[in-house]
């Protein structure tokens, strides 16, 4: 992102433009009262402002307050007429320009906004003879520029100006409004890019789930295994410890049988779920088995784990849900961290679900972060995987552009800049879902300027992990809101005329919008 330099002075002196705006001592004492009239939005105030304008014809602020008043009265026609009146009589008045630019924004005539604000959207270019601007002028101007850039989808230029607003007036309503428009534009750009990428996205064809007529449970070595079918994540540490204390070999055999049972009796369990005869306490046996195998570091069970991860999307939805993308990596890490070759072969297997394979990518990422001494080994693994995708064809049913984009995110997290040349080849071949990781320029920049956030994830014993999940996941903790966000709120046009603030008393709210008194803020 480019950095914009401010080569002018910024002041909060309310007398800065008195001469230019024709503010006499008499008018100065009345401006605040006229300003409050405009904000109250009463029809009777129109004539009072018109009378004041007739008495002080050289003052543009009174006309601006009249525009604000019409806006409060929802009289758009009169508001726009007043804006044009201001521009005709006070063509150099910044807030008149901003009002007109806002009018163009509201009418979605975005191409007209640079005619008013200047083609490069820079305040000093609009007023080259001035070297000092009031804080409210700067904030209001950049907010308007951000509206323009957000509307045309130039998020980078909008963010450059938002950084200035954030530094100068972080708590103002204008800064908050500017952020909302940038956020909305970012969401829209992401949606547009997603829809466009959906047309060319490369996905594997995954398997259909087999339905068997099996209804009988396996014969387990240990009766305690039945607890896994009857208790959810609230099973409790006592029962978990009791299971883990069983003879290891026979226990591992039973846990593998649990996983194979979920595949053999998929149709049976699916029917139970569809008939609402299967509550949460009976849905977690697959998760229990995987976590317990992880706790036992059952390396010989990796093939069975991969068998589970080779099932269909419907299977994952029934048995794993959010665990597939958020939590299953941890027990697999404990099982597979020393068998990276087997992990690689799983990635190479045709027809495997995107997120089943990203689970393995997460294991490799965490291995590099938790064991820096193995970073080169992990990078070598990723390099070979990239080369595999570059050497594969679509007919091989292994190339998945979402998976590849997520893999690039893993590499960014471990700062694997050594693989940038190979990553570029993936972009050149069109194998990357850019809506996930960004374009190559953005990816390259992420490697050049890595953030300092620690991406390491803590490895916990099974009982502690269950406790953490039940305490923090929305599905388990009713105090955590899972209400959807109405992003449409961010797109609603709500642009009113820009107010040139009157002179403010020491104990009045500060015009920067901070909520503090003027004497405690900009004064």
N-to-C terminal Cα separation, in Å? 33 Å
State the share of residues found in helices, binned by percent: 55-70%
Our Rg estimate from Cα atoms comes to 31 Å
> Could you spell the SSE succession in H and E letters?
EHHHHHHHEHHHHHHHHHHHHHHHHHHHH
Strand order of the largest sheet: 1-2
How many strand elements?
A: 2
Uncertain regions spanning at least 5 consecutive residues: 481-496, 499-523
Strand content: under 5%
User: If helices are DSSP runs of H or I spanning 4 or more residues, what is the number of helices?
Assistant: 27
> Average pLDDT, to the nearest integer?
87
Shape, per Cα inertia axes = elongated
The assigned structural class equals: mainly alpha
Sheet with the most strands? 2 strands, parallel
Overview of the molecule:
With 523 residues, this protein is mainly α. It has helices at residues 25-40, 45-55, 60-72, 76-89, 94-106, 113-117, 123-126, 135-152, 155-168, 173-200, 226-230, 237-244, 248-264, 266-274, 285-295, 302-309, 313-319, 323-326, 329-336, 340-348, 354-370, 375-391, 401-413, 420-428, 434-437, 440-448, 462-472, and strands at residues 9-11, 132-134. A two-stranded parallel ribbon has the order 1-2. Helix 8 packs antiparallel against helix 9 and helix 13 (248-264) packs parallel to helix 16 (302-309). The protein is elongated and about 100 Å long. The model is unreliable at 481-496 and 499-523 (pLDDT under 50).
